Amino acid sequence: MSSVKLARAAVVRQCFLVGLVLFSIIWGCGGGGTSKVAFVSEVSWALPLDVWNEIPATDRQEMLKKGIKFEDATRTLRFPQTQFHTLLRIGERLYPIPENGGIDLPEIPAGVTEASVISSPGNPKPLHTFPITQLAAGATVVIPIKYRGPLGMNSLDDQVPGGRHLHSRDEDGGTTTCPPGTKSPCCEDQNGTLGDGKRYNNGWKRYRNFIGSTCFQWVLKGCCANEGAEIIPALFGSDISCYDNHKSRNCQDLKDDDFAVSPTEIVVQCGQQARLTVTNGTCSNESILLTLRDFVGQVKGDEDYGPGSQLIRHYDNATPRVNHLREREFFYIAPATLPEGVTELKTSFMCVTTGQVRVVNVTVRCVPQPTPTPIPTPTPQPNRAPRLLRFTNTFLPDLHSNAFKMEAEDSDGDALTYTWSWSGAATACGRDAGAGADGTRSRVYNHEGCSGAQEEVTKVKVVVRDSKGAEATYEHSLRNEGSFDLNF
Which of 36, 225, 37 is nearest to 141 (CA)? Predict the structure, then answer.
């Protein structure tokens, strides 16, 4: 079976035979009890020779204080172990590793000799594979991450118009705060605690400022361990780039605790459906709907993820760039009937992302509903054109201009737009000065340098349109000043 099929089959096959509740689904089935297995990441970062030789003694001392080890023989920095939360895969089962990096000892199927960790449901390629014997009570499994560094992340950021770090394409994304001295938008890859917060395209300072940055913290947690941390991967030979990994989000837009389902308590009539929303701003790009053996009804996301379960993608496949979709809708569909004599039944299902689970409790009711009284459909009224009320032409001697204003209303309550134009000899010697003091319903035309004869044969026209396309037009002489009641 391929790794993709293993990942998809894994989630939906756990606990079916045992029929346990949420605790078993999250932390594994079987006799694990309270025995814990911890997972930590250990990042090593090999630096180029010229960069390694450039490290000042003061920086070395500060890094040593933070527990960073120097391996001079291989020019490698080794960072302190960090709690790791992704997904553990054993055979055909997936187990979310929570934020504290520890799970109850899972059941080991017969014949399985290896386990692995993956970054997200949609990316089944293992980050690390290890012997099953490491999963012992009280053990700590170390996930080695050989990090390649930021590579092209900073190249030409401030020289190329717009930079390479276009802001996150998250539907709810806001403006990002950038390090001092840089252009916005940007990635938070130079705000490390060891550095000065500035951006550098080369040299040791570029590497130093990256250490401890927002981007690097996600690497330590396992969210970015499968990427090269560059924006354009083809130039640097990595498997995946930042934007590909997070679906066009910046690292600072990822949030560990941004995962929720709403509502979590629903009542649905037999044969009806309920619309729910899952919010996922974590480093995982997918949510999974999970059902147990005794589940009643159906859940509907984007696609099947195995028997009775569904995958929800928090991104679209727009061209040329993918957009991240923090909120997605899905459906619970109630059965058409319940067992004989049963009018109400309770069931539940789960929504899972990397390291987290949310539960939705459902009450299904088969109670006859009164036939609703039909509501008569009102006869649609034809759209009416705007009414022109008053037109004003005021001479502005200091500006050698005339200011025009149209007052209008729409009987249907539609929003109105105003389109102004002028024609005649004064258009050659004068100019359109744009909107007046009353916004788009006013206009100023400058005629300095025009003769009276030119002004006499020049007219101003305004077209007033409603939002449905109906319009009313009025034309007025440039020299005919005053206030005029129209009322038509």
Answer: 37
Contact 207, 51 (CB under 8 A): yes
How far apart (Å, rounded) are the C-alpha atoms in residues 320 and 329?
24
Pair 141, 37: CB distance under 8 Å = yes
Q: Enumerate residues 6+ apart whose C-beta is below 8 A from 4.
A: 124
pLDDT digits (tens, 9 = 90+) for 299-330: 999 998 777 789 999 988 765 566 788 999 99
Whether 305 contacts 311, CB under 8 Å? yes
Radius of gyration of the chain (CA): 33
Asked if the bond preceding 376 is cis, omega within 30° of 0, the reply is no
Which is nearest to 460 in space by CA: 420, 488, 412?
A: 420
- Rounded to an integer, what distance in angstroms lies between the CA atom of residue 330 and that of residue 444? 53
User: In degrees, to the nearest 5, what angle opens at C-alpha 469 toward C-alphas 473 and 411?
Assistant: 75
| Spatial CB neighbours of 479, under 8 Å, sequence gap ≥ 6 | 452, 455, 456, 458
Spatial contact of 104 and 268, defined as CB atoms under 8 Å apart: no
| SS3 at position 384 | coil
What single string gives the DSSP state of each residue in 6-69?
A: HHHHHHHHTTTTTT--HHHHHH-SSTTTT-EEEEEEEEEEEPPHHHHHH--HHHHHHHHHTT-E
pLDDT in tens, 171-211: 333 334 444 444 444 567 777 888 887 777 778 888 888 88
The encoded tokens of residue 76 equal: 């490698």
Closest CA to 364 of 381, 345, 387, 337: 345
Q: Which residue has the tokens 């459902």?
A: 362
